[in-house]
Structure to design on (302 residues):
């Protein structure tokens, strides 16, 4: 049972790579649950963030950006993105105000046409354009699809995020509280920790590395004495040259990655962390179904 007037539902966030979906999600939830990078295809799995107020609960699904698959991992990411359009109560179609409408946007619009689900157009990064540039952008999308609402925002600065949440509430049905009020994500800590490590690798390595890496958490163990958690993790790459890049001269880059990831993980866990990172070459792991399943990419879940 739920109290009268309480609204709840599942809301999918969809858009081209690097439009700011994860930035928006982290801002709304109030803490980091989705990793951020200026490189496209950062998000690989759907990330559920839970936003709860006295009269509303919104379960956000942040999807991988739409792109043309080049390997089995890419196929998985596309399947996650398109399946997230089904059986949700509303869809946020997020676009980048600083970029013209492209083929990726057209592809998404094609997927959205014919759906009965309410679609809200979210124009992100308005802090980077002149206000006079906004009306033509809105018009270019309004001609393609009928939207339940159009909301320009800056996810980075938080501009207009509250009005957007208000528009989402309008289209949600009355329903139960799916998660406890203090829960912000349905992902286990192990998953979020692996993503925090991967984020630092993405931020610190050159273009040839990012999409070839994955992070496997080998062990998380609370020490019996003292406030310390031991975490052992392996960064998987596809080539020996990539391993050398991530480790860096005399291990310097790997130390930087570990130090910055540890800071985020300590904030997540609320305790001191000893983080031990290894780098391992696993050739062509993105095309190996068994390896993908071991890393949590399971087709049968979607």
């Amino acid at each position: 049972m739920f109290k009268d007037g309480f609204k709840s539902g599942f809301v999918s966030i969809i858009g081209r790579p690097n439009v700011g979906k994860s930035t928006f999600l982290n801002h709304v939830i109030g803490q980091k649950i989705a990793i951020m990078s200026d490189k496209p295809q950062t998000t690989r799995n759907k990330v559920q963030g839970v936003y709860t107020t006295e009269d509303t609960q919104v379960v956000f699904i942040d999807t991988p950006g739409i792109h043309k698959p080049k390997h089995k991992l890419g196929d998985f990411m596309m399947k996650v993105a398109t399946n997230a359009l089904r059986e949700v109560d509303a869809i946020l179609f997020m676009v980048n105000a600083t970029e013209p409408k492209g083929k990726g946007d057209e592809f998404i619009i094609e997927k959205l046409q014919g759906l009965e689900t309410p679609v809200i157009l979210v124009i992100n990064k308005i802090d980077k354009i002149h206000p006079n540039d906004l009306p033509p952008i809105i018009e270019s999308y309004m001609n393609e699809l009928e939207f339940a609402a159009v909301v320009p925002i800056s996810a980075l600065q938080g501009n207009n995020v509250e009005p957007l949440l208000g528009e989402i509430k309008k289209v949600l049905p009355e329903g139960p509280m799916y998660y406890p009020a203090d829960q912000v994500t349905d992902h286990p800590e192990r998953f979020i920790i692996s993503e925090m490590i991967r984020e630092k690798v993405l931020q610190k390595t050159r273009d040839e590395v990012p999409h070839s890496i994955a992070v496997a958490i080998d062990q998380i163990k609370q020490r019996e004495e003292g406030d310390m958690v031991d975490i052992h993790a392996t960064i998987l790459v596809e080539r020996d040259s990539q391993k050398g890049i991530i480790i860096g001269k005399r291990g310097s880059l790997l130390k930087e990655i570990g130090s910055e990831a540890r800071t985020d993980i300590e904030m997540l866990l609320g305790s001191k962390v000893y983080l031990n990172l290894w780098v391992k070459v696993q050739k062509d792991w993105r095309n190996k179904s068994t390896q993908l399943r071991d890393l949590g990419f399971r087709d049968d879940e979607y």
